[in-house]
Amino acid sequence: MPVQGRKVAVVGMGGVFPTCSGLQDFNDKLFSNQSLIREWDKAIAYQKQLRSVVSGYIAEDEMDLEVVTAPFAESYPETYIDKLGRIPDANLSTADLGSIWAMLGARDAVNMAGWSEGEVQSGQTGVVVGSGGSGNLILRVAWHHFFEEGRKSRIAGSHTVDRTMFYREAANISCFLKTKGVCEAIGSACATGLGNIGYAYRLIKFGVQDRVIAGGLEGTSLETFIGFDAMQVLSKGFSPGESSRPFDMNRNGFVCSFGCGIVALEEYEMAKARGAKILGVIDEYFNNSDGDGDMFYPSFEGQQRLWKGLMTDQGLRPDVVKVHGTSTPAGDAVELLSVVDALGEEGYHISAPKSQFGHMLGGAGAVEFITALLMLENQRVLPCLNSNTLNPEPEAFQKDTKWLGPDKPLAAYRDLLPLQSFSKEINRVACLNYGFGGTNSAISVSKDN
Amino acid sequence: MERQEIVDGLVDILKTVRTIDPEKLKHITEDTDLRADLNTPSTELINIAAKAEHKFGVEFDDDDIDDLGSKIKNVVDLVLKAKARQNE
Q: How many whole angstroms separate alpha carbon A17 and alpha carbon A368?
């Protein structure tokens, strides 16, 4: 249970973002309304087998990493070389690409937090970081050699387990920073990033830990991309920068992207006492499930309950709602109407960061939480890029007699959805993320007053 | 195949293991101990064996790998044993 009076501050952030040299570059590109989505050369190489070839991807060399391939398998990334010497070789040997990003993000977040070595290497410092993990090159090559070529199991290498196990990113961060507290990963599909931050918030709020490094990521993976392409849910037919278009009437799918977001959380009074810069204060975290037995389709009722759980204190009304906003036909309409149902038709704005960098899957919630912190810092709302035309007609499900939500079509809410970034007083941002399986997560984060 | 040829090949393999200090590879003999002298992580030993199989065109017996010592000469012996079995 929560410990009375105990609050949670965000004191550091870091990550890896498509086309960006770092957090400042990410900030600058987002608030100047740029898209980080490109045509992906690795997808284009398989163009005849794929529907979509655009992504917010990050190549190894863009992160100053060099791939060392195994002599017995040309494409197998045996390990990586960090050309900037940020991560020791021993840590690189146990890491897949995403785990390296996680270590880099954690390093930046901890540096920003200003934690001492003693604080980092304490039993009161935990790591809670996860990814979606729908497959990667390491497993592809390992299984190919075993099953298709009949080679010995050792050909997969002795690091296949530690480089592919579910909580590999958290484990690698903990080994890299030598933390001694909780080390776990929460998995909830595309709500993973926010789910890990929410769980970390509870660890501090409940008095289990004083500091937690938390976040989520999705390492660049053609295997993951192929999985979603097979589901026919990826955006098709637009230029890269116009491919992710949450709420737009002509949206036809999401852009499968990759990235990493890590934040450093600390018990508020401890952070204040040491003079830390407070990037935000987490007001509340709530998560639930749709409970309707549907793996994929969003639930208006589930999202209604999510809002009620988040806003138990009606004073927590947000100035900006950072939506999940994937750019899929079904998801966006239900989400917008559930936001309107919870908050009414005015007095706030909606930001859809996926419109700028696509859907980072297991990283989405964490990277988008960082965009919420950036909105608090910049006092600017990030846009719903490409939401050019909103449906002037009610959605089909709104015509159903069982529908209990708002009756107006999406076009009635044009004023809530900015096409460009703009300045505004922002004291509180609500962050929403959902995932396959009907899981829903929400965090409210405020400016420190 | 001469023993020194195998030692040289093993040095080439060890150069690809980034957790081994390259300076320590300048004076490798058959008595060099992968664990004690080179601080090779135990998890890398099986990777070194797999690379040796590839480099020397042999396949080691699983039981032989289980019993493998950590000195260079142990690996040389293993390669020669596998070569001999190959030629039977």
A: 11
Please tell me if residue B41 touches chain A, with a CB cutoff of 8 Å.
Answer: yes
Give the separation between CA B9 and CA B17, rounded to whole angstroms.
13
Q: Are A78 and B59 in contact (CB < 8 Å)?
A: no
- DSSP strand pairing (A428-435 vs A320-322): parallel
Q: Give A239: exposed, middle or buried? Use CB within 10 Å, 0-12, 13-18, 19+.
A: exposed
**Contact between A406 and A420 (Cβ < 8 Å):** no
SS3 A126: strand
Rg (CA), chain A: 21
Residues of A noted as catalytic: 190, 324, 359
With beta carbons under 8 A apart, name residues in chain A contacting B16.
68, 71, 78
Rounded CA gap, B37 and A103, in Å? 29
- Return the DSSP state at A254: B
Neighbours of A165 (CB within 10 A): 14
3-state secondary structure of A297: coil
Other CB atoms within a 10 A radius of the CB of residue A390 amount to 20
- Interchain contact A154–B (C-beta under 8 A): yes
Provide the shortest C-alpha distance from residue A18 to chain B (in Å): 28
Give the pLDDT confidence of A126-178 residue by residue, as tens digits. 999 999 976 788 998 888 989 999 988 888 888 999 999 999 999 999 999 99
ipTM over cut 0.90:
no
Alpha-carbon distance A20 to A13, whole Å? 15
What pTM does this model have? Answer: 0.96
What is the spatial distance between Cα B80 and Cα B88, in angstroms, rounded to a whole number? 12
Dihedral angle of Cα B16, B20, B23, B29, to the nearest 10 degrees: -90
Residues linked to residue A65 through DSSP beta bridges, in sequence order: A82
Collapsing DSSP states into helix, strand and coil, what is residue A272?
Answer: helix
B63 touches chain A (CB under 8 A): no
Chain B partners within 8 Å of A71 (Cβ): 16, 51, 54-55
Mutate to test the interface with B, among A69, A76, A152, A175 (most CBs of B within 10 A): A152
CB contact under 8 A, B49 and A78: no
Phi, psi of A206 (to 5 degrees): -85, 0
Residue from A2, A8, A114 nearest A443 by CA: A8
Contacts of A246 (CB under 8 A, 6+ apart): A323, A325, A326, A327, A332, A352, A354, A355, A384, A386, A387
Each residue's pLDDT tens digit, A315-355 = 889 999 999 999 999 899 999 999 999 999 999 999 999 99
Interhelix angle for A300-310 vs A329-343, to 10°? 40
Query: Which string of DSSP letters, residue by residue, matches A22-61?
Result: SHHHHHHHHHTT----EE-HHHHTTGGG-S--EE----GG
Query: Are B16 and A159 a contacting pair at CB < 8 A?
Result: no
